[in-house]
């Protein structure tokens, strides 16, 4: 089925994704003489940098994931469609998306592809069953259920070895997400849950932060990495570096150290934050054009963020590879705004070859370690400790979308950081088990379909 976006014959822009790149690109086209269709597989814009706070009970889903439709309600040139894009046709200039059993084909004149990246298990996708990543709301809620569920199970256990396994939390990947999550699991166990159990002391929980690299926060390096490490250790987090995960199962993981020895860590709750893989839509684009993709599946774009041979197609944010730019929200936001500007300039007659190259303005990056403690790097300036934390608070509040989100987040932070309570401590079994159950169901359906196909083929062969 083909649907009409907005009734007119204006220039049609399709934006794939409602994340940082997609939303900021769309908003930058607010006053442009274009019709925009934003297609995304979720109904919300997600502020990923605070996902770990949903996972550890500080923030609610609504604080960090406003409904895209409501954010764009007043932008009259934009229609928001829910759908999983599974086909980009560069030749026909159409996008095919699906929602349940409904297929929608949307034509475009200009396309902004901002479908982001997913978790990468470096070819070991089966690890995900026992060590979920943290990329979506579902991931964060599943993790919250797993973390809190481990404490609940430990309270019920009288076997010391089982208790130790249940109270050992392993975070794989010591980049900003891993550091922030490990810090918050430690604070949860040491502060929030302290005194709330009768058979266990949650403060005794082991939190292990593990990475194959030689440092925590290796992107910062030097003094900041050292400071981060000190602050993590002060919280009682065990840091294990130069350690590669070679297997994960329901009860733990196997780690290979630099000297080649393998050891096992018994742990019920494992979290994966070690790598990213760009949306498979990148490969589709590369297969239909002169573009190439890198090992992380990102499209090697031209300096104007367009796809070689297709000046009307922009690939931005976590999906693009250009000048070794990092996968950061600012890169996606600035890319979205830049693409919008080029589309507008094109309407005024600018030729693609006259486009100025995309220039990223580095506003710095930061990671919180715990309450009152963060590290930040802005240009040559390196900040850590309380000042870094205050800067982190201000910047995150500024970039949250919507006044309501900012207000409720500020309230939740006041409760959590000044007191020791957390408002979002609910979890259900479904949050923990639904993903694996759904994956099993999908696998079963695929196997059934394949079996039906092959038995149909065999019957046709026999009949012929
Ligand atoms: C846990 C975590 C913490 C982070 N912390 C920070 C931080 O502190 N600072 C920082 O700068 N950056 C941080 N980042 C990185 C930052 O969030 C990303 O760089 C940024 O979100 C990239 O924006 P994007 O628009 O490219 O992709 P995303 O924001 O990921 O958006 C992708 C969009 O595409 C949609 N989509 C995907 N596939 C399809 C499809 N097939 N069909 C339809 N829609 C699709 C998704 O639903 C989503 O709406 C963090 C990321 C994570 C996961």
UniProtKB/TrEMBL annotation:
<protein>
    <recommendedName>
        <fullName>NADH:ubiquinone reductase (non-electrogenic)</fullName>
        <ecNumber>1.6.5.9</ecNumber>
    </recommendedName>
</protein>
<feature type="transmembrane region" description="Helical">
    <location>
        <begin position="383"/>
        <end position="403"/>
    </location>
</feature>
<feature type="compositionally biased region" description="Basic and acidic residues">
    <location>
        <begin position="442"/>
        <end position="452"/>
    </location>
</feature>
<comment type="similarity">
    <text>Belongs to the NADH dehydrogenase family.</text>
</comment>
<keyword id="KW-0285">Flavoprotein</keyword>
<keyword id="KW-0812">Transmembrane</keyword>
<keyword id="KW-0472">Membrane</keyword>
<keyword id="KW-1133">Transmembrane helix</keyword>
<feature type="region of interest" description="Disordered">
    <location>
        <begin position="442"/>
        <end position="464"/>
    </location>
</feature>
<keyword id="KW-0560">Oxidoreductase</keyword>
<dbReference type="GO" id="GO:0050136">
    <property type="term" value="F:NADH dehydrogenase (quinone) (non-electrogenic) activity"/>
</dbReference>
<dbReference type="Pfam" id="PF07992">
    <property type="entry name" value="Pyr_redox_2"/>
</dbReference>
<keyword id="KW-0274">FAD</keyword>
<keyword id="KW-0520">NAD</keyword>
<dbReference type="InterPro" id="IPR045024">
    <property type="entry name" value="NDH-2"/>
</dbReference>
<keyword id="KW-1003">Cell membrane</keyword>
<dbReference type="GO" id="GO:0005886">
    <property type="term" value="C:plasma membrane"/>
</dbReference>
<dbReference type="InterPro" id="IPR023753">
    <property type="entry name" value="FAD/NAD-binding_dom"/>
</dbReference>
<dbReference type="InterPro" id="IPR036188">
    <property type="entry name" value="FAD/NAD-bd_sf"/>
</dbReference>
<feature type="domain" description="FAD/NAD(P)-binding">
    <location>
        <begin position="12"/>
        <end position="336"/>
    </location>
</feature>
<keyword id="KW-0997">Cell inner membrane</keyword>
């Amino acid at each position: 089925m083909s649907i009409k976006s907005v009734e007119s014959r204006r220039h049609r822009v399709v934006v794939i994704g409602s994340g940082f790149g997609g939303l900021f690109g769309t908003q930058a086209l607010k006053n442009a003489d274009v019709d925009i269709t934003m297609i995304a597989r979720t109904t919300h814009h997600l502020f990923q940098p605070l996902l770990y706070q949903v996972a550890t009970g500080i923030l609610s889903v609504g604080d960090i994931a406003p409904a895209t439709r409501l954010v764009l309600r007043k932008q009259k040139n934009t229609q928001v469609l829910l759908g999983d894009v599974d086909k980009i046709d560069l030749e026909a200039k159409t996008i095919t998306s699906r929602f349940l059993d409904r297929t929608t084909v949307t034509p475009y004149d200009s396309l902004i592809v901002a479908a982001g990246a997913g978790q990468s298990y470096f070819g070991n996708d089966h690890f995900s069953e026992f060590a979920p990543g943290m990329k979506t709301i579902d991931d964060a809620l599943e993790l919250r259920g797993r973390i809190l569920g481990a404490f609940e199970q430990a309270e019920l256990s009288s076997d010391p070895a089982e208790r130790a396994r249940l109270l050992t939390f392993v975070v794989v990947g010591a980049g900003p997400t891993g550091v922030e999550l490990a810090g918050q699991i430690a604070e949860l166990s040491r502060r929030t849950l302290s005194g709330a159990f009768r058979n266990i002391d949650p403060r005794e929980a082991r939190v292990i932060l593990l990475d194959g690299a030689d440092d925590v926060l290796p992107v910062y390096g030097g003094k900041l990495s050292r400071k981060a490490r000190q602050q993590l250790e002060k919280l009682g987090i065990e840091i294990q570096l130069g350690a590669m995960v070679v297997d994960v199962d329901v009860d733990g993981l196997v780690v290979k150290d630099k000297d080649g020895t393998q050891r096992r860590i018994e742990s019920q709750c494992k979290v994966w934050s070690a790598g990213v893989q760009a949306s498979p839509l990148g490969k589709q684009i590369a297969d239909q054009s002169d573009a190439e993709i890198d090992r992380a599946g990102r499209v090697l774009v031209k300096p104007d963020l367009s796809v070689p041979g297709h000046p009307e197609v922009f690939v931005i944010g976590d999906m693009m590879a250009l000048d070794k730019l990092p996968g950061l929200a600012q890169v996606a936001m600035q890319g979205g705004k830049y693409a919008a500007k080029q589309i507008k300039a094109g309407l005024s007659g600018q030729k693609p070859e006259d486009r100025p190259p995309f220039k990223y303005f580095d506003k710095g990056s930061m990671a919180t370690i715990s309450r009152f403690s963060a590290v930040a790097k802005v240009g040559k300036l390196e900040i850590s400790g309380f000042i870094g934390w205050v800067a982190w608070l201000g910047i995150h509040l500024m970039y949250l979308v919507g006044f309501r989100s900012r207000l409720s987040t500020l309230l939740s932070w006041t409760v959590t950081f000044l007191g020791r309570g957390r408002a979002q401590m609910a979890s259900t079994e479904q949050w923990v088990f639904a993903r694996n159950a759904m994956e099993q169901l999908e696998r079963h359906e695929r196997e059934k379909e394949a079996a039906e196909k092959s038995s149909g083929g065999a019957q046709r062969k026999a009949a012929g």
